[in-house]
Amino acid sequence: MSSQIVAQLGALKTRYFPHGIAPQWITIEQQTVTLRLPFLLSQQGLHEVIEAAGLSGWQWQLAPQIERLRNSQPELPMRTGNVIVVSSGKGGVGKSSVTVSLAIALQQLGARVGIIDADIYGPSIPTMLGRASDSLQFTSRNKMIPQQVHDLQVNSLGYLVADKDATIWRGPMASAALQQLFKDTDWPQLDYLLVDMPPGTGDIQLTMAQKLPVTGALVVTTPQTVALADAQKGIAMFNKLDIPLLGVLENMSVYQCPSCGHQEAIFGDSGGAQVAAEQGVPLLGQWPLFAPLRESLDQGVPYNRQHADSAIAAQMRDSAAFLTANLYYQRHDRV
Ligand SMILES: Nc1ncnc2c1ncn2[C@@H]1O[C@H](COP(=O)(O)OP(=O)(O)OP(=O)(O)O)[C@@H](O)[C@H]1O
Q1: What is the ipTM of this complex?
Q2: 269 near 226, Cβ under 8 Å?
Q3: How many angstroms is it from 51 CA to the middle of ligand 1?
Q4: Residue 252 CA, closest ligand 1 atom number
Q5: 183 marked ligand binding residue
Q6: Which among 108, 98, 111 has a CA at the least distance from the CA of 39?
């Protein structure tokens, strides 16, 4: 029976498992199938697998064993796990909100997660996570101790300099500051480290991306035409740097009324999906413009942390899990 299930799962072709599930990821004991995947899987993803394999009579369990993948600078010592840069061609599309929400979602799925806030134009992560006025502590060896907020490990330019000081920095200073946040922080063992980059695709972003050991990148956009053109520039930038593009996340896809749940495509329809299709990269998700999301971030408690059981929090976990699967498939064949 076990070998039959392993064969059935191996032959599956789903969104998450374009090549099926490898036999070494599956353990079967009594009536329980355990998936020890090298990336994360959401409940929705697991449900898809169970349905597609026709194995709903079994107990299922996820025990992820996240793999540390090759990055753009393999010679650097790595405690920080897989480094994922979050970028946007255009400001204000919700890059920082997406970074925070994805970090919470990854952590809810069982990963150890850190965030570097390198947005020199407005390091907003400390505000979104609360405790913005906390100052950094240092180890006896003068390394920065990351802030521990909502079970995430965080360091931000916002903890180091006043907003207005960082905004006038030029490329080399911004790049040096990012490297310092990366190298001079006493990061614990992490599975994923998300880097909130400054918006845009100019020299600053290019240099910053080149100096980090990057495992993969994602581009955040809204469905607006102007944001889409900028998203394409972002994709081109990562292609030029030979950094795997993990996908496009369409934020503020539709306006969702907090009272009745009605959805309205006020910024246009599925633009992010079109860009993803044109560029041949995955669409990681289409998140609604949802006022309670902004309100909770303004109060320093991310919405999906506060409402972990909500439909939006589940959608965010699905995007986060899909991101990790794409990261694995893009990097694994070259490890
Ligand atoms: N899906 C959403 N629903 C509601 N509000 C959102 C959503 N995404 C982002 N926002 C809000 O929009 C504003 C801008 O978002 P955010 O600061 O994350 O954008 P950004 O792209 O990082 O901006 P910047 O270019 O300044 O770095 C914030 O007030 C945020 O709370």
Answers
A1: 0.97
A2: no
A3: 36
A4: 1
A5: no
A6: 111
Query: For residue range 235-275, what is the model confidence (pLDDT) as tens digits?
Result: 888 888 888 999 999 998 877 778 887 877 777 777 788 88
Q: Is 91 exposed, middle or buried (0-12, 13-18, 19+ CB in 10 A)?
A: middle
How close is the Cα of 157 to the center of ligand 1, in Å?
18
Q: Is the CB of 313 under 6 A from ligand 1?
A: no
- The CATH number for 208's domain is 3.40.50.300
**Is any atom of ligand 1 closer than 6 Å to the C-beta of 92?**
yes
Query: What are phi and psi for residue 175, nearest 5 degrees?
Result: -65, -40
Q: Which is it for strands 192-196 and 82-87: parallel, antiparallel or unpaired? A: parallel
Residues 98 and 141 in one domain: yes
Q: How far is the CA of 294 from the centre of ligand 1 (A)?
A: 7
Is 88's C-beta closer than 6 angstroms to any atom of ligand 1?
Answer: yes
In terms of DSSP H, where are the helices of the chain? 2-10, 43-53, 95-108, 125-129, 157-160, 163-167, 171-183, 203-211, 225-240, 271-279, 291-298, 303-306, 311-332
Range of the domain at 36: 2-62
